Amino acid sequence: MSVFKITLTAASAIAFCATTAHARDNVHAAGSSTVLPYATIVAEAFGENFDFPTPLIESGGSGAGRKKMCEGVGTNTTDIANSSSRIKQSDIDNCKANGVDEIMEVRIGYDGIVFASRLENTGFEDLTPAMIYEATSATSDKTNWSQIDASLPDRPIMMFIPGTKHGTREVFDKKVLEAGCKAVGHYDTFKEQHGGDKKKAAKECHKVRTDGRSVDIDGDYTETLARLASNPEGVGVFGLSFLLNNTDTIYAANINGVTPSTESIASGEYPVSRPLYFYVKNAHLDAVPGLQEFIEFFVSDDMAGPDGPLAEYGLVSDPKLEQTQEMVANRIPMGPLE
């Protein structure tokens, strides 16, 4: 256990005194459905190996988890927000407005975003961001994959993509839609239309069609998998770890000729990957029994290292894990967003 201690602000101390009636003895985390299985694995191992109760891990989405963490300070509020996208300035501002002054940003590793089809839905072995953009873009009038590229099957376009509240949507927008938009030349057109404004051009690139051929999925990947079961010619967006645990049902396309794998993501070769995080309310580190021990255990070599159970499940171990371990041990809060 770390020997470093946090000094609670006066506001934090008052908040804890006001919530003693709601005191609890277990860690509480909420947020990303992508991080959920990793956090659950760690929580169960923690409960079995430490003299603390098993942490409570809930889903609900990255944004919802950050919002819950930022509701205030006190043991009736969430300790950890699991997140498959980086915290936003609006989250930080919300936290500060509610007395949450120090947040620790913990990167647990990396995950890839894959574009998967049912095993019988062959022909989608190779895709590019440009193809996916043309299939899902609000500017598209194409109804069949073969209209996009002659190498693609003569099948109706049906995409199941992460909803706007899903942590995966951010990386989908930036690394797929925006990249595809640039590849087909639409980004430059949008930028010209908006007087050279890059942000507005990117926002135009992120818009998706509303004619039923691109469907937002706000739930977890099991919902997307169920949609493919009822729409077997569809293509869905999943995390790599989910794919690796469902290879009896689905397969993933190569993107720009690169096969999604832990190796291609760790090397940076696979173009659609993202870091996974959890955010910790520092004011709770001494107030909630086992919180410091849990987060140290989460990022330990035994759990998050390349030979640990999280890697076996599909997490790509962070090459800078040792730096994260030191930061967690020293309880260093995150600085301003870059």
Structure description:
- This protein has 338 residues and is of the alpha/beta class.
- It has two domains: 10-110 and 274-329, D-Maltodextrin-Binding Protein, domain 2 (3-Layer(aba) Sandwich); 112-273, 3-Layer(aba) Sandwich (D-Maltodextrin-Binding Protein, domain 2).
- The chain contains 16 helices and eleven strands.
- It has helices at residues 10-18, 36-49, 62-69, 89-97, 129-136, 145-148, 168-183, 186-193, 198-205, 221-230, 240-244, 262-266, 291-298, 301-304, 309-313, 321-329, and strands at 28-31, 56-60, 80-83, 103-118, 126-127, 159-162, 214-217, 235-239, 250-252, 254-255, 273-281.
- The strands form two sheets. Strands 1, 2, 3, 4, 6, 7, 8, 9 and 11 form a nine-stranded mixed beta sheet that branches. A two-stranded parallel ribbon has the order 5-10.
- The longest helix has 16 residues, at 168-183.
List the total number of helices.
16
Q: Roughly how much helix do the residues carry, as a percent range?
A: 25-40%
Total number of β-strand segments?
11
Head-to-tail CA distance between termini: 31 Å
Series of H and E elements: HEHEHEHEEHHEHHHEHEHEEHEHHHH
The third-level CATH topology of the largest domain is: D-Maltodextrin-Binding Protein, domain 2
Shape: globular
Low-confidence stretches: 1-22
What is the total domain count?
Answer: 2
Named at the architecture level, the CATH assignment of the largest domain is: 3-Layer(aba) Sandwich
* Rg over alpha carbons: 21 Å
Relative strand content:
15-25%
CATH superfamily of the largest domain: Periplasmic binding protein-like II
> Which CATH class of the largest domain?
Alpha Beta
Structural class: alpha/beta
